[in-house]
Amino acid sequence: MTEKPQDSDVAFIRALAELLRENDLSEVEVKRDYADEGKLQVRVSRNAAPVTVAAQPVPVPPPLPAPVSPEAKDMPQASPAASPEDPAAHPGAVTSPMVGTVYLQPEPGTEPFVKVGSTVSEGQTVVIVEAMKTMNHIPAPKSGTVKRIVVADGDPVEFGAPLMIIE
Q1: What whole-number distance in Å separates Cα of residue 125 and Cα of residue 136?
Q2: Among 26, 58, 106, 139, which residue is least crowded by beta carbons within 10 Å?
Q3: For the residues of the chain, what is the DSSP string, one character each?
Q4: d(Cα 7, Cα 31) in Å, to the nearest integer?
Q5: What per-residue confidence (pLDDT) applies to 19?
Q6: What is the Cα–Cα distance from 121 to 129, expressed in whole angstroms?
Q7: How far is Cα 140 from Cα 120, in angstroms, rounded to an integer?
Q8: Backbone torsions φ then ψ of 9, nearest 5 degrees
Q9: Residues facing residue 148 across a β-bridge
């Protein structure tokens, strides 16, 4: 009995299925061009059910209070209002308009755009925020004096994160 081209194709497909199973593949696709008999295009795939694993939250214990020395017990406690001011809430805060990496100087090894005590004018570049390989110059929203720089060169920043305080 002579073997038909289709018989060899069936054997070829079986071999692909075996290859799929042995190598734990999800899909194999092959295209063949025969000289006189045409073309063969085969895609063998298996639909493995996706595995979904739900992570259970791990409870975090509350922080323990700091030990207090006997001398500190007799001293008046500072009020919560005396805690350091949130730089983002300051009226002169310059905030990041995007997520990225902040740079305080135009190029490595050069002088920073501004320093604490520098006088800036409205629209002057005070930092660069790199986002998606694009250097975005961040201008001063108002004229004034740089009172505090909240970030360090190369720090990652979020949208709305305070960068510096200008008064």
Answers
A1: 10
A2: 58
A3: -PPPHHHHHHHHHHHHHHHHHHTT-SEEEEEEEETTTEEEEEEEE--PPPP--PPPPPP-PPPPPPP--HHHHHSPPPPGGGSPPPGGGSTTEEE-SSSEEEESSSSTTSPPS--TT-EE-TT-EEEEEEETTEEEEEEPSS-EEEEEE-S-TT-EE-TT-EEEEE-
A4: 17
A5: 78
A6: 19
A7: 7
A8: -65, -40
A9: 165
pLDDT < 50 stretches in the chain: 75-76, 78-83
Neighbours of 141 (CB within 10 A): 15
d(CA 94, CA 97): 9
Are 166 and 118 a contacting pair, CB within 8 Å? no
Amino acid type, 93: A
Q: Is this structure's pTM higher than 0.90? A: no
Two tokens, residue 137: 């110059």
CB 46 within 8 A of CB 26: yes
Residue 144: what pLDDT? 92
148: its two tokens: 């505090």
